[in-house]
Amino acid sequence: MIAFFICSFLQKGISILTTPIFTRLLSAQEYGRFNVFSAWVGIITIIVTLNLFYGVYTQGLVKYEQERSIFSSSLQGLTLCLVLGWTIIYGWRWQFWNHLFNLSTVQMLLMLVMIWTTAVFSFWSAEQRVRLKYKRLVVTILVSFGKPIVGVLFVTGMNDKVTARILGLVLVELIGYTGLFVRQMYQGRQFFSKRFWWRAMVFNIPLLPHFLSQLVLSGADRIMIERMVDAKSAGIYSLAYSIAQIMLMVNIAFQQTINPWIYEKIKTQSIENIAVVGYIAMLAIASVNIVLIAIAPEIVSLFAPPAYRDAIWIIPPVALSSLFIFAYDLFAMFELYYERTIFITIASVCAAILNISLNLLLIPLFGYYVAGYTTLICYILYAIGHYLMMQHVCRQTLKTTLYNTRVLVMIAGGFIIIGILLLSTYSFPLVRYPLMVGLVVLMIYSRQSLIRSAKLLRLVRLNH
After folding, report:
1. How do residues 146-203 score in pLDDT, each as one tens digit?
2. C-alpha distances out from residue 296 to 24, 95, 233, 308, 388, Å
3. Of 87, 75, 69, nearest to 50 (Cα)?
4. Over the stretch 212-225, which tens digit does the pLDDT of each residue have?
5. How far apart are CA 441 and CA 284, in angstroms?
6. Cα separation of 294 and 435, whole Å?
7. For residue range 383-402, what is the model confidence (pLDDT) as tens digits?
């Protein structure tokens, strides 16, 4: 588990920790355009690949334990066919698609390659987690270091710096991940499986509105700011979002570590310890994000030149959102396992529609800063919706409920109050610094509880 946590951090973290380099090599406008491209990648990935490496895949690895290799190779085959099919569709009306996404032909083709390589890695890494082959994920370290190195070389050597940044990412992923595709295909030796292809599409297609809604919540802000304000504002907002991603990596590491364990517990209906592990993980997520909020002004100064200073006001709501993103994932696992996909879709679509509506209404009135706060509001409602649906599913299938509502409200409420308190001190460093010292003292005082929590999370791995 430790090896996987480190690899997860390096995979996402190195690109984020090299942000100070690229914010100085790219102008705010160029940085904004690159991040808008990244937002489009996330949305188009779902349409092109049906997000097969999420949802049905993790569930299938647990359910089809004796046929994992065949299941994996067949879904790799299906994904490759989907990418090639959409490449043909793009080539047929390339001018229309370029205009729609405001991207060049080269950028669109690079996007399609990136969608495939990312899917390949997602399939492979998910299988390694379920098989507890954490050490194999060390291969990602080379890719993680290669991306910023090649990116810097390309950006400094080409005139079109946005395309250069994209090309660097795609080239490294193509070299690093193609072998993983070959490996899974060789192990499964089955490109086409009518049973698994049909199963995957029937399971995931109803979830497409849910997947797209998730991306709208996390990525539409940057696209809307670029269209409604300008690319520079999108760049400043993107910097704040990228910094908050440092702590979202903790979310991802926890999710990818405990999700297979939770699926096994649901499968065997041994759910007694799930709530305790969930509470501890949520407290850990809240704690690290409080640290980020506390030092946001200093982090922004480190990551970018003064032109990005206003990003400090966007980091707190984005960081606060991370707890509710993690909570949603905990709750939605029960809906996914018991295939109550309509519940997931309803909550996700409602949150996405609300997010777009609030942005359209409030960005012209209050500026692009408000997008971070509309996102927070939507994620809170999103988590609440999935929590209510999860409790309904648990009562129907397990004849019990799982989490204690009062405990969840105390964790979330305390997190929000501390975050807002720290935000209000950004203009008063003489007040903020003593508060930061107080938080450190509190963490030291609570070290025994933290140690016990870490031991319990370690048992998750051992029991799995």
Report:
1. 888 998 999 998 889 999 999 999 999 999 899 889 999 999 888 988 888 998 888 8
2. 19, 42, 18, 12, 33
3. 75
4. 887 777 777 888 88
5. 16
6. 8
7. 998 888 888 888 887 777 78
Distance CA 338, CA 416 (A): 32
DSSP states of 379-406:
HHHHHHHHHHHHHHHHHHHTSS--S-HH
**CA–CA gap between residue 348 and residue 306 (Å, rounded):** 37
The residue ranking higher by pLDDT, 455 or 103, is: 103
Q: Under DSSP, is residue 54 helix (H, G, I), strand (E, B) or coil?
A: coil
Task: Report which of 181, 253, 218 is spatially closest to residue 374, judged by C-alpha positions.
Answer: 218
What is the C-alpha separation between 299 and 221, in angstroms, rounded? 22
Residue listed under structure tokens 């940044």: 165
Reported pTM: 0.71
* Residue written as token pair 């709530």: 275
Q: Is 400 exposed, middle or buried (0-12, 13-18, 19+ CB in 10 A)?
A: exposed
User: Within 10 A of 338 (CB to CB), how many other CB atoms are there?
Assistant: 17
Across the chain, mean pLDDT equals 82
Are 191 and 74 contacting, i.e. CB atoms less than 8 angstroms apart? Answer: yes
Element (H, E) at 106: helix 105-130
Q: Residue 120, Cα to own-chain centre: how many angstroms?
A: 17
Helix (H, G, I), strand (E, B) or coil at 86: helix
| Distance in angstroms (rounded) separating the CA atoms of residues 326 and 285 | 8
Bigger pLDDT: 339 vs 71: 71
Torsion, CA 426, CA 428, CA 429, CA 432, rounded to 10: -70
| Tokens standing for residue 424 | 């209000």
Over residues 273-309, the pLDDT tens digits come to: 788 888 888 888 888 888 888 888 888 888 878 888 8
pLDDT at 49: 92
Residue 447 has pLDDT above 60, yes or no: no
Report CA-CA distances (Å) from 281 to 196, 240, 284: 34, 24, 5
- Which own/partner pairs from 133-141 qualify as long-range (CB within 8 Å, at least 24 positions apart)? 134/1, 134/2, 134/3, 134/4, 134/7, 135/3, 137/3, 137/4, 137/7, 137/8, 138/3, 138/7, 139/176, 139/180, 140/7, 140/10, 140/11, 140/176, 141/7, 141/10
Q: Look at residue 374 and tell me whether its pLDDT is greater than 70.
A: yes
Per 3-state DSSP, what percentage of the chain is helix, strand, and coil (rounded to 5)?
Answer: 90, 0, 10
d(CA 42, CA 35): 11
